[in-house]
Amino acid sequence: MSKLVTELHIIGENGNMFDTDMEYIIPLYQRAYAWEDKQLTQLIEDINDVAEDSNYYIGSLIVSKQFGRYEVVDGQQRLTSLYLLLNCLGIKTKPTLTFACREKSNYTLRNIEELLLENRSKIDMDRIEPGIQRGIRILSHELTKDHFDRESFMEKLAKIIVYRIEVPENTDLNRYYEIMNTRGEQLEQHDILKATLMSYLSDDSEKGLFAKIWDACSDMTGYVQMHFISKNNAVREAIFGSEWNSMPPNSWQKYKKAISGTTQETTGHKICDLIEKNFKVEDDEGYVDGDVRVRFESVIEFPYFLLHTLKVYVSLYGVTHEIATSKIVDELLDDKKLLDAFNRVVSCGITDTGRIADSKEDFARGFIICLLRTRYLFDKYIIKREYANDSADGEWSLKRLYVSGQQSKKKAYYGNSEFTRPGERPRTNDWRTKTNIMMQSALRVSYTSPKVMHWITKLLIWLSEADCKNIKNNAITKFDKVAENIAIDAVRENFFQVCSNGVYAMGVNTPHIVFNYLDYLLWNDDRNGKKKKYSDFVFEFRNSVEHWYPQNPSEGTFEQWKDGVDQFGNLCIIQRNVNSKFSNMSPEAKKSTFKDMIVKGSIKLRIMSELTEKNGDKPASLYWKERAYKAHEEEMLGHLKKACNIE
């Protein structure tokens, strides 16, 4: 790690982060302490979420060493909150945090104990700073709740890390703070990781090369090719070919030749760049269908992409932990543990050629190449959101970059990614693209947290393995099946293996992937049939599992269903923002009241609505409860069992 970066534990065996001879001073140009309920309760929740087996990064503190003390450039709100937290926990701190020219703030910090004990007679309340007093009151309230486990909290607090980062000498601090505050830019874990990996390289030109590739990959908007900017597109063509769409090379020397000798503008937001008055990010939009201008939005952010890529690297190079019983990477993709994840691989990883710790320079080179190649595959084969012209309504997209024009006048445009054999008709590719979009979007809306989007990792590993052999042969025509097998494994493990004795009654705990995979199967069957009833269906974030026949009928207007209400046949998945009355209405009332939502909703929900009809003298609700739901369940389970090869 860089000499300017220091790892600080909030509490440890030798005291706490404020047990130092160096004073932290909050300069006058910064605003007063302002954290309230939302930020402080989130701080407590973040600490409570810490796992027992690793450290947890909670933010960075940007400082400048001035006259034997640290002037806090960025991170003062979190720093002050941690100071208050330790005092509220009864942990003694040295008076090492002060505010420049803010006498009330300093007086309040020195009298926290009296405020907690409410010894108003011992303090001058007119000298108390209201913002800090409010922070003390909020933290004290959170720490004295009935369910608060102090022992567990202290164990987790010991895992919390803050990175103190010193800015270089002669930095214009006022200008730096103004820029960081205005643009919301601050050093994050991935910035520290970048500096750490670059420090493994001894040659400055190689560090520059590393930074240029990293900066291009870190911008998750658009396609990575468009982030290599140089005169006459020289760098872009050297890496991706004249059509801008070839797989980036797997040779460090080729990158040195392609980039080092050319004038390359990076997309990284360095301090010197940001200070320039005319600083701007190049427009990364392109076109489809002639004049339709489009922009693209990634389904994950860069820190998570780094974690996916690390898993790809571990898989490609067979990296294992030096302790055979230990995992080299965590299952969860936790951006708060980004540095910890990479440190474990570097410190404890071994490959066929030896320990990674003994060849950090090779790791830095190998990882940055893996990052660019994985990003190229991610852009081309993993869904994203596509927005046409100025529309705010995006759609799921799987496109590759094409180029039109000649020489310096070349422009990017976008068309469907290829999933065909050589010589197959474009129409064949169109429907393969559609099935890939539908399967991936089913996975995307099922796993809404980026921490559990393992399907992305699995697809990227499949695309990357054996020098990307699967995109060089006919295997790519089965890419939708690779994604579908991920869904099948999840449905088997989390539904069929959980339900026993033929009873499928998980109720609202039924995994979303079960509903979404079923909708995919129903859509695919319909697409291959004659009726084409569901050609308008798209996967959306339907995140609420509901009962079609309600658990609690509204105001006792019809009888409660006790035994079978949680059965799969009686369940549907809807958008969370649908009127809350939905849950208590009868099936007939839902069918008539939410007609517009149902016609655009889940395919299973549409079918349930169609089946809700009276039968003879029996009202629709009663007939649904007694017979219709069961026939529907058997039909739906039949689709799932056949696809999952369940007897």
TrEMBL record:
InterPro entries: GmrSD_C, GmrSD_N. Pfam families: GmrSD_C, GmrSD_N. Residues 515-637 form the GmrSD restriction endonucleases C-terminal domain. Residues 21-197 form the GmrSD restriction endonucleases N-terminal domain. This is DUF262 domain-containing protein. PANTHER family: DUF5655 DOMAIN-CONTAINING PROTEIN, SLL5132 PROTEIN.
